[in-house]
Amino acid sequence: MTPDTAYVDLTPDRLLNAIDTLGTRCDGRLLQLNSFENRVYQVGLEDGSQRIAKFYRPGRWSDAAILEEHAFTLELAQREIPAIAPLSFNGQTLHHGDGHRFALFASQGGRTPELERDETLEWLGRFLGRMHAVGAGSTYRARPSLGIRSFGIEPRNVLAAGDWLPEDLRAAWISVADQALEGVNRAYQVAGDVQVLRLHGDCHAGNILWTGSGPHFVDFDDSRSGPAVQDLWMLLSGDAADMRRQLAALLRGYAMFRVFDDRELHLVEALRTLRLIHYSAWIASRWHDPAFPAAFPWFGSTRYWQDRILELREQVALMQEPPLL
Predict the structure, then answer these.
(1) Closest CA to 111 of 218, 245, 254
(2) What is the signed CA dihedral for 137, 143, 145, 151, rounded to 10 degrees?
(3) Distance CA 65, CA 223 (A)
(4) CA 150 to CA 170: how far, in whole Å?
(5) Is 28 helix (H, G, I), strand (E, B) or coil?
(6) Active-site positions?
(7) Out of 4, 189, 210, 216, which could bridge 113 as a Cys pair, Cβ 3.0 to 4.6 Å?
(8) Domain regions of the chain by residue span
């Protein structure tokens, strides 16, 4: 069984039985949540409460890498930073059952944050500043860093070597991808030797749940080491003027708890470019998982790759512009 088909045997009975081994009695309520990389479920318990169960994709992370993520989120939670950390059973947060690895989390409600409001962005900036202050206190050993090779060169090579690109667009995409990676390299050279720290890694609005008490950060599955700005740029949108205003609000909050290195602003469009290349390669690498063709039926179409070529051309131009200040 390959990593991309290993969920075939994860039937409702088997996953509920796996959870029951922890001493938490399920009542049969089960709702699959939106997740492609892993399988995530809302599970009802006999006492009427709910938990979130995450079954990790086999072969993606080692046990050591998963436990590093768990340790980081537990450290954040202990510092009263609202990161949803895994629950511990018999002193363990990572569990094994029927050939699958899984963890349980508290069920956290909330809504999408209103990122158009400066007050919301300042609030997020304060917690991100605190999160990064903790993240800078130690390093990941088992989890990889976010860098040009892992998020740019390797994904580019995966796509170029496969049969995903339409033949009449192959040369154009490879050419613009190479131009884009040259721009990424220049941006990193201009930024210089910026600090690398433990990050959320995928800090977009979908991974933040907002309640009356403020934000709650969920899904640290993509947590890596990288520059602090990685957790900021995905909260920016609109034209340059909009993003400057949003960034200013984020940094007002951030600066209350941690100094932000302005050199990292040279990396905003470079990191966006790496994410775009990596995203297409991620879909390609998971195509044997039946969930992916169903969710991304347009992947591989001429229109899809035409849009990706245009997108990367725009990034090449944006990386030549002055950074947001």
Answers:
(1) 218
(2) -150
(3) 10
(4) 21
(5) strand
(6) 202, 219
(7) 210
(8) 12-106, 118-318
What pLDDT is attached to residue 322? 92
Helix (H) or strand (E) holding 31: strand 26-32
Give the DSSP letter string of 21-67. Answer: TTT--EEEEEEE-S-SSSEEEEEEETTS-EEEEEEPPTTTS-HHHHH
3-state percent helix, strand, coil for the chain, nearest multiple of 5:
45, 15, 40
Those residues with Cβ within 8 angstroms of residue 210's Cβ, 6 or more apart along the chain or in another chain:
110, 111, 112, 113, 114, 120, 216
The architecture (CATH level 2) of 118-318 comes to: Orthogonal Bundle (1.10)
Q: Which residues contact 197 (CB under 8 A, 6 or more apart)?
A: 132, 135, 136, 225, 226, 227, 228
- Partnered with residue 215 across adjacent β-strands are 210
- 148/155 Cα distance (integer angstroms): 10
Contacts with 189 (C-beta within 8 Å, 6 or more apart), sequence order: none
Contact 253, 125 (CB under 8 A): yes
Reading the chain (325 residues) residue by residue, the pLDDT tens digits are 455 566 888 899 999 999 999 988 898 899 999 889 999 999 999 998 999 999 999 989 999 999 999 999 999 999 999 999 999 999 999 999 888 999 999 999 999 999 999 999 999 999 999 999 999 999 999 999 999 999 999 999 999 999 999 999 999 999 999 999 999 999 999 999 999 999 999 999 999 999 999 999 999 999 999 999 999 999 999 999 999 999 999 999 999 999 999 999 999 999 999 999 999 999 999 999 999 999 999 998 999 999 999 999 999 999 999 998 7
Q: What's the CATH architecture for 12-106?
A: 2-Layer Sandwich (3.30)
Contact 73, 83 (CB under 8 A): yes
What contacts 289, CB < 8 A, 6 or more positions away? 4, 5, 7, 36
Which residue type, as a one-letter code, is found at position 294?
A
In contact, 217 and 200? CB cutoff 8 Å:
yes
- Residue tagged 């860098």 (tokens): 147
C-beta separation of 77 from 126 below 8 A? no
SS3 (DSSP) at 300: coil
C-alpha 148: how far from chain center: 16
